[in-house]
Amino acid sequence: MEFELSRLAEYDSDSIIAELQRVSAIISDEVKLTRILFDKHAKVSSCTVAKRFGSWQKALLAADLECRYSGRTVSDKMKYQIARDLTDEQLIAELQRIALELSSDMLTKLEFDSRSDISSSAPSRRFGSWNKALRAAGLKPVSMGRRHTEEDFHENLLNVWMHFGRQPKWREMKSHPSVITPGAYSKRWGSWTKALFAFLASVNTEQSEKCATHSQARPKLITPQAKSSRPEDRRKPSLSLRYGVLMRDNFKCLLCGNSPATDPKCKLHVDHIVPFSKNGQTVQSNLRTLCVDCNLGKSDKIEP
Ligand SMILES: [Zn+2]
């Protein structure tokens, strides 16, 4: 085994570019070189790289790796600083742009934050409050909890559950990846605990119904044209199925054992063992929990 430094010996631009190229070469060509992936393999932090070149995108450009750029990831503080230089009109235009993108005349802060390069606290502070900013942009003020269906609530909760690899806490529902505030949950169900119970009741009912209806495995043939409404023929597993698979696998990647509960950078997916494109069914026995890294190494390929 070769001895390697865990940090770069030099931090000049050439060394950093060399490191970008080294890491990009050990990651599959089909995968974008995100800061998270880079930090996993690199001997210099992506922050240092981004600072040196002005941004992560510019760094990739300098290293001739622009095609591996995945999109922007900026911190909240940076998002706020970008907004400081914008005029009121520009802030309004950004609110309107995102409302248009969502084809909605209402916009929550979380929806805004997950889509904008500026922080929602910028228009809030500029106009006095979030609702005042919405009004300035000709949008309707937010009334908590009314826009979302029950399924939206449950879907969002499962997302955050997956993100942490465990039951989320109230305050964790306030930020990414949650798009619905914990207050909205409490308002709808009376309390956060009751909202959690409602979620569990929903996924458990769906599960037992499924067992009753599909207890016998039926042999079947799927043709690409045949549109079936049966859940096992849909690519996306239902909420309760995903929850069931994640619980069965203890919110851990079945290949490498990684879990968001112990590694915040780990992101989980529910994956088809026999790919859906190869007629794999969307049933619990053909689904497993994988982390993004393991999942990306696999894509749609099974050996013939
Ligand atoms: Zn893994």
Supply the key terms.
flat; 304 residues; 14 helices; binds zinc ion; two-stranded antiparallel ribbon; mainly alpha; 2 strands
Structure description:
The protein is mainly α and 304 residues long. It has 3 domains: 13-68; 76-136, no CATH class; 150-214 and 228-296, no CATH class. The protein contains 14 helices and 2 strands; from the N terminus they run H-H-H-H-H-H-H-H-H-H-H-H-H-E-E-H. The protein has helices spanning 13-26, 35-41, 46-53, 56-62, 76-84, 88-101, 109-115, 121-127, 130-136, 150-164, 182-189, 192-213, 239-248, 292-296; strands at 268-272, 287-291. Strands 1-2 form a two-stranded antiparallel ribbon. The longest helix has 22 residues, at 192-213. The radius of gyration is 23 Å and the shape is flat. Mean pLDDT is 81; it is low at 213-227. Zinc ion (ZN) is lined by residues 253, 255-256, 258, 290-291, 293-294.
Strand order of the largest sheet: 1-2
Q: Low-confidence parts, pLDDT < 50 over ≥5 residues?
A: 213-227
Our Rg estimate from Cα atoms comes to 23 Å
Which percent band covers the strand fraction?
under 5%
The strand count comes to: 2
Tell me the series of helices and strands, N- to C-terminal.
HHHHHHHHHHHHHEEH
In short:
With 304 residues, the chain is mainly alpha-helical. Helix content is 46%, strand content 3%.
